[in-house]
Amino acid sequence: MSSSDTAYPIGEAGQPWGKAEKAAWLARQVRQRSYASDVLSAIDGLRARLDVSEYGRLDYADGSFPLLAIRSRDWRDELPVMLVTGGVHGYETSGVHGALRFAEQHAAGYAGRANILVAPCVSPWAYERIQRWNPDAIDPNRSFYANSPAGESAALLQLVAPLPGRFLMHIDLHETTDSDESEFRLALAARDGKVFERGEIPDGFYLVDDTENPQPAFQQTVLAAVEKVTHIAPADAHGEIIGSPVVAPGVIEYALKKLGLCASITGARYTTTTEVYPDSPQATPEQCIQAQVAAARAAVDYALAHG
Length: 307
Known about the structure:
By secondary structure, this protein is α/β, with parallel strands linked by helices.
């Protein structure tokens, strides 16, 4: 592998970025799609059947973004809360549209059994720019902790804070893409002044369980539902997926709280992070959205059945 394969056009090798490098990175980010057209308009179409609230607003130099949450209209305090989040990484398109479609097609069907809460696009600036970070070159999905430097993460933490102990399930919808290797992990290494080590993108859908609270039966139930829609990622030659040991077919584990990951924010009994591969020759964008919806439905149904 030549050095040109792992070079990033900003910064000096081995030197973490300062303000100048972050400004240079930000100047390269171009708006490519519309949060208002793609997300806010879709949410507006749900207002007749579901409650919609603004849980925060991100005011950046190049735009202001309302953060919207979708709730069950018949919210009842005695019922468990099921949280579905998408777009923590804005470029992961099926997470956003999977969360929206789940809300549209299925949220009302749980009336009287569960309170459904959906935050479909946690990072709207990054959604518009098909980017992993926010404008400050911060990854929101490593920033879910007190006094978070990421406004996206801080706002979502504030959304769930009034409901301690109420969450039974939280599913966070993500993608793993070819651009993880070609752009985002390269940028991460450059930002942190580290050497980039190329990895392998898994071809298929997989889940990330919590090292501190593994729920293997829950994960396998979600995968069984997804497998009816798209294929499950196999382990690589080392028995791993993205550098982590495969603990069961299609499942790896992370220490969610320690890493500041979104799936850690509720303390729910059942948590998982989905990862689907939209660049697979075996899957279409529509299949990826359907896989996210299938995962969310199976997660809610399992949690309701097992308490």
